[in-house]
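in:
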């Protein structure tokens, strides 16, 4: 649906009345595609004219929603609420050697990991495939219309350092507990801003994440807080399914 159509439909709630959201009663999170939100790189098809996935106006450093195809200003960033975190090790075949999706996904305690040898940020397995340590954040992302919608942000390679700093940031936020002490708010109780910045090492340059705290949700945000809490619960129960991110290998131009 184009932004133009969405704007025209904004004032139709008076017509819909009690019928708002009708028809979706049997649709759960499992029936919807959870979008990946990522930073476009120099080699991303969305920024390459002539590519079938090219988006006019897309530039490296912009933030991209893989389902809605919305683009966000990377310097300004996006508002997100992290709801659930996990780390795993997707197993990939080398580019051009197989499908653009993981061969398998291994948990941190998988014995497969110990059979591999470290090769930069990758772990090379005896079968020739490699593992890539990946931090995944199930989030609620602010849309251009002002609401929030579920999405997934992954960090790997050089971005694992960003992930660790963000995790530390989340665990050090404190609020008054009403009893004279302090407590750590739930992950889904804090809004952050994620922007992009150009990063470099001796092998080249790429765009990476910059995370800053925006605000802690207050009583006036109760509806948003409950939505984030519900999404967090669904993820933890395994009710949110994510399909293999088939573009991940193609778009990742980070020097290793």
């Amino acid at each position: 649906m184009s932004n133009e159509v969405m704007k025209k439909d904004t004032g139709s709630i008076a017509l819909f009345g009690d019928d708002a959201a009708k028809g979706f009663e049997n649709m759960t999170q499992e029936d919807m595609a959870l979008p990946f939100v990522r930073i476009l790189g120099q080699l991303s098809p969305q920024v390459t004219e002539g590519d079938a996935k090219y988006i006019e106006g897309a530039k490296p450093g912009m933030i991209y929603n893989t389902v809605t195809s919305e683009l966000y200003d990377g310097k300004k960033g996006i508002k997100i609420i992290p709801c659930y975190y996990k780390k795993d090790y997707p197993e990939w075949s080398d580019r051009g050697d197989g499908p653009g999706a993981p061969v398998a996904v291994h948990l941190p305690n998988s014995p497969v990991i110990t059979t591999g040898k470290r090769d930069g940020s990758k772990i090379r397995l005896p079968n020739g495939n490699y593992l890539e340590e990946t931090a995944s954040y199930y989030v609620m992302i602010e849309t251009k219309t002002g609401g929030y919608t579920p999405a997934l942000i992954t960090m790997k390679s050089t971005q694992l350092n960003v992930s660790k700093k963000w995790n530390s940031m989340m665990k050090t936020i404190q609020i008054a507990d009403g009893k004279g002490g302090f407590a750590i708010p739930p992950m889904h109780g804090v809004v952050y801003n994620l922007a992009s910045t150009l990063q470099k090492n001796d092998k080249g340059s790429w765009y990476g994440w910059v995370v800053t705290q925006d605000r802690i949700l207050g009583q006036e945000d109760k509806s948003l807080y409950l939505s984030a809490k519900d999404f967090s619960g669904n993820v933890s129960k395994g009710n949110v399914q994510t399909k293999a991110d088939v573009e991940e290998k193609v778009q990742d131009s980070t020097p290793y």
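note: Helices lie at 3-9, 13-16, 160-172, 222-236, 248-251.
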